[in-house]
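Milestone M4 deliverable, item 7.
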Amino acid sequence: MPRYAYQLRIREGCEDEYDRRHVAVWPELLKDLADAGVREYSIFRRGQQLFLYLHVDNFDAFLARMATSEANTRWQTMMADIFEPVPDLAPGERFAMMPEVFYMPGHPEGTE
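Output delivered:
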């Protein structure tokens, strides 16, 4: 399954609020993410910088499906006040995508 990574940035002073809002992500949003094909999704934060990493078969299809999610629309509206533009976002670029340059797959159990 393809892996995708991108960056987001939160406003200075909103770090604790960002973390707080992610303590209990809504079950209906989690269901919609899974229904959109997401198998794994992690968000890492260092200060204002966010690194998002997910496994999904088709990122564009995932985005299209999430655009129809009522829970996602509410979540994005709630989160909008926390974000600021990523400094090196190219004109017309929606996400600061990060191409994979290295991957070391895990070892299946019993093959170590």
